[in-house]
Structures are given as C-alpha cells and as structure tokens.
Amino acid sequence: MGPKSRSKRPSLLSKGRPPTVKPKQAALSAKATRNLIRSHHQLLKARVQAEKAGDTARVSSIDAQIQANGGLDSYQIASKLGQSLDRGGDSSKILIDWIKPELAQWKPDLPKLRVLEVGALSTKNACSRTPALDVTRIDLNSQEPGILKQDFMERPLPASDAERFHILSLSLVLNYVPDAEGRGDMLKRCREFLTAQSPITFVPTLFFVLPVACVDNSRYVTEDRLLDILSSLGFQLMQSKRSNKLIYQLWHYTGQSATRSFKKEMLNPGAKRNNFAIILRQG
C-alpha cells in the first residue's frame, strides 16, 4: 500500500457549474434535448480538466461556450423535458412503486418519512404527491419555489437523526458531477444523511438513476463495479430495472460498511466507449 494520500475537501457540485443566462423558451425535440445535455456534460468535463491544469484562458473560453449554449438554465430545461411524460416520465414513480408495500404501513397520525431529493427539478412529482412523504428538495439552480438552492456537497451534515432522511434520491445527479473523485465523495457522503429511526418498518434507502451508458458503455465502470462500490459503502441492492436510456436502482443502507479504494482502471476497452468513472478513496 502506498503512502497515505493527503486529505482534501470533497469536490463541490458547483465546481463545474458555469454562470447562467436567461433560459431559452423554444421547444426542444428529443434529439435536440439529448444533444444539449451531452454537449453540456462534455464542456463541464473539459472545464474541470482546464481548471486542474491551471489554464484560466481555457476555463474562460469554455464558460463562453457554455453561455452561448444557454448556460445551466437551458440544461435544466432540457433535463425537465427529458423527464416529461412523453419522454420516459417522472423517475420518482418507480421509487414510489418499489416502496409501496412499506408505505402501506403508514397512517395519517404517524410522522411522515423524510425524503431528500438532490437535483430536484419539480415540486409536483410522484414523491410530492405521496401523503406519507415529507420531501426536501435541493438543486444548484432552483427554478421554482419549494426547491432550495443548495449544493449537496456543502449542505451541513445532520446534527441528529431528526435532521436525517429515510430516503435519499439521486436521480441523474451522479453523472453530472464533473470528476471521478467527486462522484466517489458524493456516494460516501450519502451515508451521513440517512437514518434508520422510522415511524414504520423501513430501511434507509438510496434511490439511484443513471444513464445506461454510464454502466454499459464506460471504459471504467460496469454494473458489477457499481455494485462493488456501493456494497463497500454499506448499501445492498434491492431493486434494479432499465429503460432504453436509464438504469434505476434502489439500495438499502445496512450500515455494514467496509470502505475499499476503487481507482480508475480500464474495465471495458474500446475506442467508442465513454470515460465515466468513479474513484473511491478510503477514509
């Protein structure tokens, strides 16, 4: 084992977020929506690399390109369109369907189960319409009342179980984090926000949605590698399903963690594969 690495502050989600501009109002086709999201992600990755290299001129140039594409607001409009009913629907419907047996125990005289939605885009999704759930919504660039403008990586750690949550939702969030170490830091941090203290029989739960390409077409991540990473953090996979574009998973947090290190290593060579990766460090 090599020398102990110097500890550093976890990367912030906002690190890769550029200045925003007024959102475009024109309707986007499904193809245009995908292209906008893909382009935004590619620019963010390039921006992180330029920052690490200390190339301020390149960072400024990339920021200008992102602004020319409509900035973060346009990205979020595209994301909302991607979750609209005619393009796959509200992902939280799958979460509610998976936990429906547990929710059947809940009665109106009991405290609600607390949900933290990271990267929330709407206050009207299936979670918000479920009486048993009390939903806290955060996003870097809140687009409507009821969504707190906040970086999950800067959210204060809970001081007690009363500030923790029974469910944590990361729907199309991890893939937005612009660097591999930041993704590992985010997964580790999730554990701090979950509680096993519940008014009904309910295991602390992580709901997780990623593009299928992150596990099927990455050089550095496979579905098995994702399973290994989350298992080492104390999560147990309970449900998994796929659509043409997305993979949905539900994980129970057991607390039985034995964090291992996972480096960026070639698992699936191929010229046409993507570079999505997750680096997990001990500690």
From TrEMBL:
Residue numbers spanned by region Disordered: 1-26
Family note: Belongs to the BMT2 family.
GO molecular function: rRNA (adenine) methyltransferase activity
Keyword terms: Methyltransferase, Nucleus, S-adenosyl-L-methionine, Transferase
Location within or outside the cell: Nucleus, Nucleolus
Its EC number(s): 2.1.1.-
Organism lineage: Eukaryota, Fungi, Dikarya, Ascomycota, Pezizomycotina
Species of origin: Penicillium diatomitis
Protein name in the entry: 25S rRNA adenine-N(1) methyltransferase
UniProt cross-references to Pfam families, sorted A to Z: Bmt2 (PF11968)
Gene Ontology CC: nucleolus
Stored InterPro entries: Bmt2/SAMTOR, SAM-dependent_MTases_sf
Binding site for S-adenosyl-L-methionine: 119, 139
Function statement: S-adenosyl-L-methionine-dependent methyltransferase that specifically methylates the N(1) position of an adenine present in helix 65 in 25S rRNA.
